[in-house]
Design goal:
The protein is mainly β. The chain contains 2 helices and 8 strands, in the order βββββαββαβ.
Length: 124
């Protein structure tokens, strides 16, 4: 079953919405890629306009700037995830997730499921 970003099938009143046009390719969406902590695995995914997206399935390292230099450090664990408490149990990496690294705690600033890389900044 495909995911669509389109108008709702029902009105506020509960009635059916009438079709105003046929479905279009640009209405298509995709499943949540659920990037998690583990041995590095990425996939290429077709995107609109003859482009590809790199999608992180599992990642074990993050890029963190330390004193003006970017270090590739290992992720030890997921500490907090403001998006969903259950993501901490599942060790999912999303934007805003607080991770524990060898440099200390860091907040993920990139979107691993969309950009294919985990970038983070240190949190005091």
């Amino acid at each position: 079953m495909s995911i669509r970003h389109d108008r709702s099938k029902t009105k506020k009143t509960g009635g059916k919405t009438r079709r105003y046009r046929k479905s279009r390719k640009y209405d298509l969406g995709s499943e949540f890629s659920s990037p998690s902590l583990g041995e590095t695995k990425t996939e290429k995914k077709d995107s609109r306009g003859n482009t590809e997206k790199n999608v992180v399935r599992e990642e074990s390292h993050a890029n963190i700037p330390v004193n003006g230099e970017v270090k590739n450090v290992e992720i030890d664990s997921v500490v907090d995830n403001p998006a969903n408490d259950n993501y901490v149990r599942r060790s999912l990496l999303t934007k805003g997730t607080i991770i524990q690294t060898s440099e200390g705690k860091a907040r993920i600033t990139s979107r691993p499921g969309q950009e294919g890389v985990v970038n983070a900044e240190l949190v005091e």
